[in-house]
Amino acid sequence: MSEDRLVYKGQDVTLDVTLKIEHVVRIIAESEQIDFDDAYARFAESRAYAALQKPTSLMWAESAEYIADRYFEQVTA
């Protein structure tokens, strides 16, 4: 299996993570009234994004709204 795959207990969750990132970024872009690319750049620097990249954190199993809330908590703290 390729090293760029995200695997949890033998299950490839790469697509789950990718789709979750897209949904979270859309939420951020809409909420902050910025374009998708800017929202992605901001999200990619967050702890929520870092957790999402670690399959063992199980962040990928949470809703996009929950993850966006974690992002917003970080940026408003």
Q: Helix and strand string, N-terminal first?
A: EEHHHH
Biggest sheet strand line-up: 1-2
Overall pLDDT metric: 92
Please summarize the sheet with the most strands.
Answer: 2 strands, antiparallel
Q: Which structural class best describes the helix and strand composition?
A: mainly alpha
Shape type: globular
- Distance from N terminus to C terminus (CA atoms, Å) equals 39 Å
Total E-strand runs: 2
* Tally of DSSP helical segments: 4
Q: Structurally, how many domains make up the residues?
A: 1
* Low-pLDDT residue spans: none
Radius of gyration: 12 Å
Helix fraction by DSSP (H/I, runs of at least 4): 55-70%
Strand content: 5-15%
Overview of this protein structure:
With about 80 residues, the protein is mainly α. The chain has one domain. The chain is built from four helices and two strands. Strands 1-2 form a two-stranded antiparallel ribbon. Strand 1 and strand 2 form a beta hairpin. The model has no long low-confidence stretch (mean pLDDT about 90).
